[in-house]
Design a protein that fits this description.
It comes from Microbulbifer celer. With about 290 residues, the protein is α+β, with helices and mostly antiparallel strands. The protein has a single domain, classed as PPM-type phosphatase domain (Phosphatase 2c, domain 1), CATH 3.60.40. It has nine helices and 14 strands.
């Protein structure tokens, strides 16, 4: 896999209205192996609780992901490595959930805190995404933009039932009501999806402070035209702030480059993303 190149960039911004940034983000790319990840968490709860919950979550995932690629991992087969990545994300999310609950029990002023999460990991040509809540992951390549996550939210459920159009959801009074979050129940349902990457791509992770203002077509246009690609994170945040910036805004990008594929012509039936697994459940409403 020596032909693969990975680069990351990320930024979080307080926005134009909020007094505190309750978002947290961490980006990482290993210079020695084909390994990179981005984690974005959007906290809720006020009184600094949201910031605590999002930081606990990002720090917990960082700790576990940083320890993953070791001698044992490298000695495993690709299939085993993929299972280990999935287990690492699920385990670290469960641990973060418990840490938030413990913090809430010790500090009553944080009783309403919780956080969304979206995390993406690339190992060689394998991409795995975990998410809870309405922070999103997108993938852009020469075929266009693909949303890799489905919001765990009231409006998404209404869209799925045909009660709202995506356009109506953008202005719905319940658009910020999520149905899943870390730190709310003893167990959290994490949606995990995975794919095999077959060509150059940009992976965007963001909090809803970005998607509140920029629709998918705008996100696609920026990813397709703004270069250097990793600097799109600054453009996204600037645009969201110019549109109002009522929420904290976070954006992280992984740039995936397969030099061998770049040099070779793809066949007509090449698959851009090949789903490897999928799971989805629902949970009670959480008002943010």
């Amino acid at each position: 896999m020596e032909s693969i190149s990975l680069a990351v960039n990320g930024r979080t911004d307080i926005g134009q209205v909020r007094e505190e940034n309750e978002d947290s983000i961490h980006c990482y790319s290993d210079s020695e192996t084909d390994f990179a990840y981005v984690v974005v968490a959007d906290g809720m709860g006020g009184y600094s609780g949201g910031a605590v919950a999002s930081r606990i979550t990002v720090d917990t995932l960082k700790e576990h992901l940083d320890e993953l690629v070791n001698g044992t991992f490298l000695a495993c087969s690709p299939q085993q490595q993929q299972l280990m990545l999935r287990a690492c994300l699920l385990d670290s999310c469960a641990i973060a959930n418990q840490k938030i609950l413990e913090a809430k029990s010790l500090r009553p002023q944080f009783s309403h805190m919780g956080t969304t999460l979206v995390a993406a990991v690339i190992w060689q040509n394998f991409l795995i995404v975990a998410h809870v809540g309405d922070s999103r992951a997108y993938l852009w390549n020469e075929y266009g933009l693909q949303r890799l996550t489905r919001d765990h939210s009231v409006v998404q459920e209404m869209i799925d039932r045909g009660q709202l159009t995506p356009e109506q959801a953008q202005t719905s009074q319940v658009r910020n009501h999520i149905t899943r979050a870390l730190g709310v129940e003893n167990q959290v349902d994490v949606t995990i999806n995975s794919w095999n990457l077959t060509e150059n791509a940009l992976l965007l992770l963001c909090s809803d402070g970005l998607t509140e203002y920029l629709d998918d077509s705008t996100i696609e246009r920026i990813l397709a035209t703004h270069r250097p690609a990793l600097e799109c994170v600054y453009r996204f945040i600037d645009d969201a702030n110019q549109c109002g910036g009522r929420d904290n805004i976070s954006a992280g990008i992984i740039e995936y480059c397969n030099r061998a594929q770049s040099a070779a012509a793809l066949s007509d039936d090449a698959i851009t993303l090949r789903p490897a697994n999928r799971e989805d459940t629902t949970q009670r409403k959480v008002h943010r």
